[in-house]
Write a structure and sequence with these properties.
Shape: globular
Largest sheet: 6 strands, mixed
Distance between the termini: 29 Å
Number of domains: 1
Number of helices: 4
């Protein structure tokens, strides 16, 4: 890849862990500019390989509606194996599930998403998913 396997945008970070896990740490508020950066990272990684997305929301405060819509409507499911959210609150879970449901109603493909409490749970889930893919 032309860029390093680590990105910083606003107060947030992303890094690619070999072979196929994109980690994101969201801290504080997420703006539309952050959403644009997030989508570009997804596009960059996804143009080379499918990946598991693990987003740690435990320090996230607010996500701008335009940022969420930009990422949601412009992401391509073929970039991802699935999405895992660490530390998502009830409202964040409800929004993620409702967006997925809405996309399915409009014919947009959806991807598997999971909610966990810790990084270890995310890693265990990825290991389980990989074992299913290997079968």
């Amino acid at each position: 890849m032309p860029r390093p396997h680590e990105w910083t945008f606003g107060t947030h970070q992303a890094w690619l862990e070999s072979p196929d896990v994109l980690w994101m740490k969201i801290r504080g508020a997420t703006t539309l500019e952050d959403g644009v950066a997030i989508l570009e990272i997804y596009r960059e990684v996804g143009s080379h390989q499918r990946f598991y997305l693990v987003t740690d929301l435990s320090e996230a405060t607010t996500i701008d509606l335009k940022a969420r819509d930009h990422v949601s409507w412009n992401s391509h499911t073929e970039w991802f194996h699935g999405a895992i959210y660490i530390g998502a609150g009830l409202v964040q879970r409800a929004v993620a599930n409702s967006m997925s449901f809405f996309h399915s109603l409009t014919g947009k493909a959806t991807l598997p998403q999971h909610f966990v409490s810790t990084e270890n749970e995310a890693r265990a889930l990825i290991a389980d998913e990989r074992s299913l893919l290997d079968r």
